[in-house]
Design brief:
The structure holds 2 protein chains of 2 kinds.
Chain A lengths: L1 E10 L2 E11 L4 E5 L6 H8 L7 E6 L2 E2 L4 H7 E4 L11 H11 L4 H15 L14 H13 L5 E5 L7 H15 L3 E6 L2 H7 L2 E6 L2 E7 H6 L4 E9 L2 H10 L5 E4 L7 E9 L5 H10 L3 E7 L4 H14 L8 H18 L1
Parallel strand pairs in A: 3-8, 3-9, 6-7, 7-8
Antiparallel strand pairs in A: 1-2, 1-4, 4-5, 9-10, 11-13, 11-14, 12-13
Helix pairs in contact in A: 3-4, 3-5, 11-12
Chain B lengths: L1 H16 L1 H42 L2 H4 L10 H4 L1 H20 L1 H9 L1 H7 L4 H28 L14 H26 L5 H17 L11 H10 L1 H9 L5 H23 L6
The chains are: A alpha/beta, B mainly alpha.
Chain lengths: 340, 278
């Protein structure tokens, strides 16, 4: 549904987005994850036709965002990060305006507006002026204007930023509920948001996609090591040294012993071969009780930080640290501009 | 076309649901009414009152004693009152147009709503024209108000018969409308260049003021001829002057059309500039 190939955008000599390539299939929800200033908004603005890319191509629903802009705009609902709205209009009035400007036919307009108002939970607010609404409801109005012409693709730039926890949960469930068979791309710098709302993730850092995969794949095969957590009761020091002596175990980090004589420790082992059975036997052979063993799920935070670190170390042969890499990159981009 | 109508209606709604249109129209009506009343009362009515007496005197004078004195003309309202009235109104327009146009695009930039307009299926041309025609509509109402001033004296025509010459009146109204249309286009131009409404208004006012006072240069005796002709060519107020007297020059119509189209063209370019500016 969305195909992005080698997208690059320069602001002057600074590259905001570099060589970004990704695909989104119909019906997928892609979380566009990255720190502030990573290039999320820039990419989305290119997709919505706000401005063109310096180079590269992007197609939405088969239409090129440069040469067939009008067709693309008809198929996209866009919610910019700042949620710009005409504050002196009523909710209804504004949505009617949005529907008309997006070309919803006159006869269907009232129905389309009423439908989106009830779907998004604005029924009680429909006659209020937008400036009198709370931040959460304004966000809903923003979503409603994006959805009013029933677009195939939704582009949501940080849809939950600036909301309180209750509003965040509500907006997330609205997005998930309304996605239906629409293709959604939403950007965020909040990691849990991606795991709650999205099924695909693209991690963007310093204008580059450093990781793009399904959420499952990302969290399962992130590293060659796996962490497991065990809880034991008994002579826990003996357990620690016994497990440590096993060949293959990378590290054992025990927590403090609690009054009942139980102790939890996290053990780092290779993903392959699976050593969990061996570890369980070792623990029980020391005479201690094995109370719990579970694998520690890799969180998105870890993947994120790891991906950024990997990207930084790829920055160049001379780059020895993340900082060095990030200093290196703007210079490189300037050279590229000169060459052009 | 639908998108154009949506924006046009939205803008009209904005002008008439906020105080802007009313403030502009009321100031306009008050000042215009004042100018009209003053010049009517002070000059025209006095003169027209004296007219029958003057004619009687002339007729009673033996023809050999009249010398070169012609028979007094019927005082011409279209000549005595209308041109100075519309010149004064033009000055009021210079002050009011910046207030009318300053928000048109600057506010959308400031509030960020322009980002949605840029990503809706609507062209920049449609956006600019819809907004422009909405502002022009407000101005059209103002011009219609001045038409009332033209008609008003007919109620007091008294002994001298109807004083309105319809063709001259139409010329004045059209000239005044084109003058305002050009001013509004220039106001749009500045509104599209900044997100600060005060700057947009100040620049618009400065330019319009310049284009008024540069016309003064055409009157001084010491002013060289080439400067006079430049002043006459580019001064918006000088250009509209003849139409108030009932003289519609094609060159003036073309001039105002060029300024209007030029202003809107630059507005379009300024709107587009976000695509290539960082």
């Amino acid at each position: 549904m969305i195909e992005v190939r080698n997208l690059t955008k320069y602001y002057g000599s600074v590259a905001a987005v570099r060589d970004v390539t990704f695909d989104i299939e119909k019906g997928q929800i892609l979380g566009f994850l990255g720190p502030n200033g990573a290039g999320k908004t820039t990419t989305m603005r290119i997709l919505t036709g706000y401005f063109p890319a310096t180079s590269g191509t992007a197609r939405v629903a088969g239409f090129d965002v440069f040469s067939q802009l009008d067709e693309v705009r008809r198929r996209i609902g866009y919610l910019p990060e700042s949620v710009p709205l005409y504050k002196d209009m009523s909710v209804r009035g504004y949505l009617d305006f949005a529907a008309q400007i997006k070309g919803v036919p006159g006869g269907d307009r009232k129905k389309a507006v009423d439908k989106v108002i009830s779907e998004i939970g604005l029924t009680e607010m429909r006659n209020r002026l937008i400036k009198k609404l709370s931040r959460g409801f304004r966000q809903r109005v923003g979503l409603a204007q994006a959805l009013v012409n029933d677009p195939e693709v939704l582009v949501l730039d940080e849809p939950t930023v600036g909301l309180d926890p209750k509003q965040i949960t509500e907006i997330r469930s609205i997005i998930k509920h309304l996605a239906g068979d629409r293709t959604v791309i939403l950007s965020t710098h909040i990691l849990p948001e991606v795991s709650i709302t999205c099924d695909h993730v693209a991690i963007i850092h310093q204008g580059r996609i450093v990781r793009a995969d399904t959420l499952e794949n990302l969290t399962s095969q992130s590293t060659t090591d796996t962490s497991i957590v065990v809880e034991v009761r008994g002579d826990t020091n003996k357990v620690v040294s016994a497990v440590r002596d096993l060949s293959g175990v990378r590290s054992v980090s025990p927590d403090g012993e609690n009054p009942g004589g139980e102790r939890t420790m996290s053990i780092k082992i290779p993903t392959d071969p699976d050593m969990r059975g061996q570890i369980a036997r070792t623990i029980t052979e020391t005479g201690a009780d094995l109370l719990e063993m579970r694998s520690k799920a890799v969180t998105l935070e870890e993947i994120f930080i790891e991906s950024i670190r990997e990207d930084a170390s790829d920055g160049g042969p001379e780059a020895t640290s993340e900082q060095a890499a990030s200093h290196d990159e703007p210079e490189k981009s300037e050279e590229e501009v000169v060459e052009e | 076309m639908k998108a154009f109508l949506a924006i046009f209606k939205h803008e009209i709604g904005f002008y008439f649901s906020s105080p802007i249109a009313y403030v502009v129209l009321v100031i306009f009506a008050l000042l215009g009414g004042y100018f009209n009343a003053i010049s009517f009362l002070l000059q025209y009515s006095e003169y027209s009152d004296q007219y029958p007496m003057a004619v009687m005197n002339w007729e009673q004078t033996p023809s050999m004693m009249r010398g070169a004195n012609p028979k007094p003309q019927v005082p011409n309202y279209m000549e005595m009152i209308v041109p100075p009235l519309y010149m004064s109104l033009s000055i009021v327009v210079l002050f009011l147009v910046p207030l009318l146009t300053m928000r048109s695009i600057a506010e959308e930039k400031k509030e960020g709503t322009i980002e949605l307009l840029y990503t809706y299926p609507v062209s920049d041309l449609q956006v600019v024209l819809a907004k422009y025609f909405a502002a022009l509509f407000v101005y059209f109402v103002a011009v219609a108000v001045t038409a009332f001033y033209l008609l008003l004296p007919d109620l007091f025509k008294g002994q001298i018969g109807s004083i309105i010459e319809w063709k001259a009146a139409f010329s004045a109204l059209l000239g005044f409308f084109m003058f305002g249309a050009a001013c509004i286009a220039l106001g749009f131009m500045f509104s599209s260049m900044t997100e600060n409404q005060v700057i947009a208004a100040a620049l618009t006012f400065a330019l319009l003021l310049m284009l008024w006072i540069i016309g003064w240069a055409s009157q001084g005796d010491a002013v060289p001829e080439y400067m006079k002709s430049i002043a006459d060519t580019i001064s918006l107020t000088n250009r509209s002057q003849d139409s108030y007297k009932g003289l519609l020059h094609l060159s003036d119509i073309v001039f105002f059309a060029c300024v209007t189209v030029g202003g809107l063209f630059i507005t379009m370019r300024a709107l587009e500039s976000h695509r290539w500016r960082a």
